């Protein structure tokens, strides 16, 4: 079975998460520089079978767009051109960063490490987005 890959787009860094081949679990994959997202995805998808790309859609608490929302829509359009054979899905990502921080705390990550390794937060956020997507399927 092909994997599902989730993207938590940021202005500087982007968190990525991926399912296992049976699409049961969501696992943090990588945090990369946002400028390297497309080359990374092209490389990853050439090595792994990925059927669906899920992008976290950021909105305000009231559901209205925020400053990142247009960037996500632009990324979706780019991905549809680069990967026409893949399904591209958007999923609400409100509260994922907060949930990711709570997850890191629950895992026993020291405060110093949470601050120094902000990339962990990004890929855990992507895993939460992906888990939410899997639960809706």
TrEMBL record:
<dbReference type="Pfam" id="PF03652">
    <property type="entry name" value="RuvX"/>
</dbReference>
<dbReference type="GO" id="GO:0005829">
    <property type="term" value="C:cytosol"/>
</dbReference>
<dbReference type="GO" id="GO:0016788">
    <property type="term" value="F:hydrolase activity, acting on ester bonds"/>
</dbReference>
<keyword id="KW-0690">Ribosome biogenesis</keyword>
<keyword id="KW-0540">Nuclease</keyword>
<dbReference type="InterPro" id="IPR012337">
    <property type="entry name" value="RNaseH-like_sf"/>
</dbReference>
<dbReference type="GO" id="GO:0004518">
    <property type="term" value="F:nuclease activity"/>
</dbReference>
<keyword id="KW-0378">Hydrolase</keyword>
<protein>
    <recommendedName>
        <fullName>Putative pre-16S rRNA nuclease</fullName>
        <ecNumber>3.1.-.-</ecNumber>
    </recommendedName>
</protein>
<keyword id="KW-0963">Cytoplasm</keyword>
<comment type="similarity">
    <text>Belongs to the YqgF HJR family.</text>
</comment>
<dbReference type="InterPro" id="IPR005227">
    <property type="entry name" value="YqgF"/>
</dbReference>
<feature type="domain" description="YqgF/RNase H-like">
    <location>
        <begin position="2"/>
        <end position="100"/>
    </location>
</feature>
<comment type="function">
    <text>Could be a nuclease involved in processing of the 5'-end of pre-16S rRNA.</text>
</comment>
<dbReference type="GO" id="GO:0000967">
    <property type="term" value="P:rRNA 5'-end processing"/>
</dbReference>
<dbReference type="InterPro" id="IPR037027">
    <property type="entry name" value="YqgF/RNaseH-like_dom_sf"/>
</dbReference>
<dbReference type="InterPro" id="IPR006641">
    <property type="entry name" value="YqgF/RNaseH-like_dom"/>
</dbReference>
